Amino acid sequence: MFKKLFFLIILSSIFLFSQEWQWVHPYPTGVNLRGIWFFNPDVGIVCGDAGVIMKTTDGGQTWTKINSQTYRNLHDIHFINQNKGFIVGDSALILITEDGGNTWTRRQITPYYHFLAIDFPNADTGFLCGYQGKIYRTTNGGNSFASRPSGITEILYDVSFSPNNGRIGYICGYNGTILKTTNGGDSWQTLNSGTTIAFFTINFPENPNIGYVAGDYGQIRKTTNGGQTWQAKASGTINPIKSIKFLNNNVGFYCGNNGTLRKTTNGGDNWTPINLPITVNLNKIFILDENNIFICGDNGIILKSNDGGENWQILTNFVAFNNWLSISFPNRNTGFVCGGLSPAGMRTNNGENWEPMDMNNSSFIVYALYFINDVNGSACGDAHDAQLYLAYTQDGGYSWTRTPSPPNPPPDTFPKYDLHFPSASVGYACGDRGTVIKTTNGGRSWSSISSAGTGRNFSVFFVDNNTGFVGGSAGIYKTTNGGSSWSRVYDAQVFDIFFINSQVGYACGEAGKIYKTVNGGTNWTTIQTPATRNLNALFFINNTGYAVGDMGIVLKTTDGTNWQLEPIPFKGNLNDIWMINEEEVFICGDNGAILKRLPVAIKEAKEKKIIIKEKISQNALLYDVTGKIVNKPKKGIYFIKEKKVRKIIIF
């Protein structure tokens, strides 16, 4: 690949070559975004789950990930000027920036209750609220925060002070809670809202007398007398309203679950629906001025309007928010996922940009796919009425041909959850009631073979055309004669099986359990891991392996015995994994999630360096400063890992 001479700069001992999980779909992130702030139409910041903070300087066309130093969920953001701002999150976390959001420092308050909202009526005075009725106040611009009594223990979701009025403010929360202070937060009184529904959002746009509160079941209430009375307003929706914001006392917007967005121009008396091409939950509105409005929501969605809400641009790059159940990469650049409905799958030619893949499945769920090379692949799943879906492609996923089910009656025609090809022609699929089916012509047709038990089989793996394993609710089964007969070799529910060779194999299952065999499945031992959630899939290359599971669990091992948790910017369920090599790993999961693990740039290095000349081997992997593999480098700084030695290259 790279045969010419280059200058190599090898840094001294504190050269750090770290790893990081990056979002590839949706892009730039797929986490639920909960806080948004814009300084002007070009420069803005969002924050959300798993410690995600991103900044844009071009109106949201591109986003830069900011190091938050945490993987806790972040719920709200507020700036008191162009430089100083605050983010609040889970476990009483406060993040503070002094440089416009480029860097953040942590401030921890105890006890560790979640903070959900923050508001500063002026540069000195600010308020936080959250779980257990907790309210905190600062009077010195955030240098310190002190607890203030609320008199209640309900969850407090939002806080609002009118601009430049640090004396009168309001907080809303669970069970119809509305609180008011008239003395700058020294004390708070409970107002009568007339309901027990949860209020998630409150806004007093111009003065402390006229304000709005909204929440569950599309409920909106308005006060014109400082909260003494609240009048119900017809919202036009029954979806929970997550955010209500007004430009002034007449013009306002609310957003909520299932892509709900509406606008009023008469103080909330009437709300006009705004139709969006998405159905994800919308969590927060930020009104910059009469023209520029921004919204963030679940699955990384960011919306922008520059004409007062008449037209909206989606700033997030995505194809579908399906629950991806299976992933396959026959080579480094060509990859496939499947799992959801319309589209049932996606494909990529570069590992980054994805396109929908019509799998000829109508409204069926495709549970698994497997590619033996970049053009030939097979898939299995669930057709309507609990029938079997089988299909194959010969053109890299651009078109799929349905394969007839085996000619046997049920249960052989029941859905299949996994498939594996030990060779180009021979493949196996497993599913309900212990059923296993087999192909000998690359998935063009399938035939029934002996069942592996009577339970639901989730995983199949063959070390060669005849020797293989099936795992599921009734344990692990083994065959040595191509599925003509099966014997149970281990009694434990497992969700995935992977063998490194004919003797060494692994399985994963409930409550973070991993099982290992070193004698071809005759005996299995349980390996304790730091995980407590279900593990859904695992993959090995040599002794390096990964396992993924529910609630964003990722485990890594380099010896098959000791496993460590790897933090990732996602807390949804992860369903499958594929390793390109020991450095590059793809994982997929719920809500359209696809993430990739790559080496990233140097964190720290001494000034002393040695300059040498040498050739780069054909098999060396070259990375740019973002961790992406580069095939045709231009002038710049790159990183290389060659024979386990890590170096910097300057072209």
UniProtKB/TrEMBL annotation:
GO terms for biological process: photosynthesis. Residues 18-106, 115-244, 417-489, 491-594 form the Photosynthesis system II assembly factor Ycf48/Hcf136-like domain. InterPro entries: PSII_CF48-like_dom, WD40/YVTN_repeat-like_dom_sf. The keyword Signal applies. Keywords: Photosynthesis, Photosystem II, Signal. One of its GO terms (cellular component) is photosystem II. SUPFAM superfamilies: Oligoxyloglucan reducing end-specific cellobiohydrolase. Residues 1-18 form the signal peptide. This is Photosynthesis system II assembly factor Ycf48/Hcf136-like domain-containing protein. The lineage of its organism: Bacteria, Bacteria division WOR-3.
